[in-house]
Amino acid sequence: MPRFDPCKYTYPSRRNVVYARNGMACTSVPLGAQVGLEVLKNGGNAMDAAVAMAAGMPLFEPTGNGLGSDAFALVWVEKEKRLYGLNASGVAPAALSADTVRESGFTEMPKAGWLPTMVPGAPAGWTELNRRFGTKPLDELFAPAVRYARQGVPVPVNVAFQWARDSRRIKKAMEADPAPHAYWWKSFMKEDGSPYGAGELFRWEEYADTLEELAATGCESYYRGPLMEKIVAFSRETGGYFTEEDFRNYRPEWVEPITADYRGYTVCEIPPNGHGITVLMALNILKGFDMAGQPRESADTYHKIMEAIKLAFADTKTYVADPRYMRTKVEDMLSEEYAARRRGLITDRALTPEAGDPSCGGTIYLCTADSEGNMVSWIQSNYTTFGAGVAIPGTGISLQNRGANFSLDPESDNCLAGGKKSYHTIIPGFLMKDGEAVGPFGVMGAFMQPQGHVEVLVNTIDYHMNPQEALDAPRVQWIGGKHIQLEREAGPEIAEALAAMGHQVEVIDDRIDMGRGQIIWRTENGLLAGGTEPRCDGTIAAW
Fold first, then answer.
1. What is the largest CA-CA distance in the chain?
2. For residue 373, what pLDDT is reported?
3. How would you classify the pairing of strands 153-154 and 476-480?
C-alpha cells in the first residue's frame, strides 16, 4: 500500500455543494454522517437520524462531546409547518455555590475537575426528541454506534489534533488532583500514555455497553437508575458535589425559538440560557447597513461584522443567564429601537465594546433532512474539548465542564448557584422564509459560534453564496477588546486596512478554532443542497 502522511496537504482542496432528493445528513466526521444516512435509508425520519448521529458522535469525536454533554436542537416538523426548540442543558449540583468555588481558592470558575461539571442533558435530549417525533426505537438508533464502538473507529485528522492538544491540559489537572482525572486518562489515552493519532483505531467497549443500557431503559438509567448511581458514587469518592436528587429532578425543556428578520429571512435561535440571541442582535444592527453594496472581501465588510458582533456580545455576556434569573427582557434586547442605538455607535474606527441598557424603553454540530420535509439542527458539547477531564469508571461517560461559564460575581444574573443553568455557548441555527423552512445550519466552536452564524448568514443572504461557498469564505473572530483574529486567506491588504481602523489584527494559519459548520438548504425545486466545513473532517451523506 502507498505510504502517506494524513496530516500533510501540500495543495489547497475544494469542495462543491452536494445535492440530494431523499435525505441528507451532515456533521464534522464522515462516520457520523454515514450513520444518519443509514437511518434515513432504513425508513427513519430526520429526527431518528439526528438521534442516531448524536449517540455516535461521542465515539467518533470524543474531543467535542460525550455521554456527559449538554445539547440543544431546533426541529422543523413539516406537516405542522412549525419549528420546535429543545433545551437539553443541565444544571449545577444543588450542593455547589459561588462561595464553595471561592473557598476552594478560585477567583473564577475552573475548567477541569468536579467544580465545573453539571448534570448532563444530552442523553435526556435524545430520549425526548425520540419520544416526541421519532419513528424508530432507541435500540435500533443506537445500534450503529454500538457496532462501531466494539469494532473500533479510525481517529480523524482534526480530532487527533485536538486529542493531542487537550490531553496536555488534562495531564496538568491530573498532576494537581489525580483522583477525579485518573480514570479519564485510562479511558482516553493509549497504554503508553500518548494520545490517539490520526488513523489509529479507537475501541470503546464500555461505551457500547452503556448505549445498550440507555436504549433498554429509555435513558432512565442515567437519571434514575444504575448509571446515575455510578456517577454519584464516583463523585462522592473523588470530591464531587452530585447527589441522586440532582439527576432525578432533571428534565429537558421544549422552548419557543427566538427570531429576527434579516432582509426578508427569519433567522431562528434557541432562547437564553444559550447565546444564540447574540446572532440576532448582531444581525439587527447589520441590517441597517447596505452590506451588499460593498464587496464581501473588503476591510469595511469585515469591520462592520466585527463591530456588530462586539456590541452584541457585550450585551449577551452581561445579561444572558438561566432565564429564571434574567432581569433583562429578551424582547428588549431584540428591539429595533435598541438595535438602532447600538448601530449608531459604529464608525470607521474599532471600538472597545461595553454593554448597553436594553431595558431602556464555547462542540459538535449535525443537521439532517428527510424526504417528508422534516429537518433537525442539533448541537451537543463538552464545552472545552474533553470537558472537565472526568470520566466515570466502567461507563464510557465523560463529563462536560459547562459550569466554567458561570460567574462568581454575586451581582451577575449568571452567578453560580445550585440547580441553575449556566450561560451556554452552543447554538443550533435555522433559517426560514415566508413561514417555510429554508434549513438548518450551525457553526460550532465556543464563542466563535454566534460569530460564525453571522458570517455564514451574511454570506448567504447579502452575497448570495451557495452553502459550500458560505462556509469556505475566510473568517474573522473577535477575541476581546480590539483584538481580532483573521484567517490568512483574507489577504494582507484586508489585514492592513483593519489595522489602520484601529483593530489589533492577528493573522492566523491554524483555522481549527475558527468554527466548524454544516448547512442544509432546501432549494426552490424541492431538492436539498448541503455544504460542509473545510476546517474539519466534515462530510455530507446524501441520498
1. 70
2. 97
3. unpaired
Closest CA to 169 of 369, 383, 388: 388
Q: What is the pLDDT of residue 363?
A: 80
Residue 92 DSSP label: -
Give me the DSSP letters along 297-318.
Answer: SSHHHHHHHHHHHHHHHHHHHH
Per-residue b/e over 229-253, b at no fewer than 16 CB within 10 Å? ebbbebbeebebbbbeebbeebebe
Angle at 79 between CA 75 and CA 84, to 5 degrees: 25
Q: Alpha-carbon distance 319 to 47, whole Å?
A: 32
Q: Cell triple for residue 304?
A: 462592520
Q: What pLDDT, on the 0 to 100 scale, is given for residue 361?
A: 44
Per-residue model confidence (pLDDT) at position 11: 57
* Centroid of chain to Cα 18: 23
Whole-model pTM: value is 0.95
C-alpha 173/C-alpha 113 separation (Å) is 7
End-to-end CA, the chain = 31
- DSSP secondary structure of 8-42: ---S------EEESSEEEEESSHHHHHHHHHHHHT
pLDDT digits (tens, 9 = 90+) for 509-518: 877 788 889 9
The per-residue pLDDT for 148 is 98
Interaxial angle between packed helices 299-319 and 449-457, expressed in degrees from 0 to 180 and rounded to the nearest 10? 140
pLDDT in tens, 62-81: 999 999 999 999 999 999 99
Asked if residues 439 and 522 have their Cβ atoms less than 8 Å apart, the reply is yes
48 within 8 A of 141, measured Cβ to Cβ: yes
- DSSP-derived pairing of the beta strands 201-202 and 153-154: antiparallel
- The CA-CA-CA angle for residues 174, 61, 216, to 5°, reads 95
Cell of 299: 476591510
Cell numbers describing residue 355? 454593554
- How far is Cα of residue 172 from the mean position of the Cα atoms in its chain? 25
Residues 491-537: tens digit of each pLDDT: 999 999 999 999 999 999 877 788 889 999 999 899 999 999 988 88
Between the alpha carbon of residue 389 and those of residues 62, 109, 415, the distances in Å are 11, 15, 23
pLDDT digits (tens, 9 = 90+) for 268-311: 999 999 999 999 999 999 999 999 999 999 999 999 999 999 99
pLDDT: which is higher, 446 or 487? 487
Write out the three cell numbers for 487.
484567517
3-state helix, strand and coil shares in percent for the chain, rounded to the nearest 5:
40, 20, 40
Cα 167 to the chain's mean position, in Å?
20
Please compute Rg for the chain using Cα positions. 22
Question: Cell for 127?
Answer: 430520549
Three cell numbers, residue 227: 448509571
Beta pairing, strands 364-370 & 23-27: antiparallel
What is the DSSP-derived secondary structure letter of residue 526? S
Beta carbons of 204 and 396 less than 8 angstroms apart: yes
Task: Give the number of other Cβ atoms within 10 Å of residue 348's Cβ.
Answer: 12
Distance CA 162, CA 183 (A): 19
Q: Which helix (H) or strand (E) holds 280?
A: helix 277-286
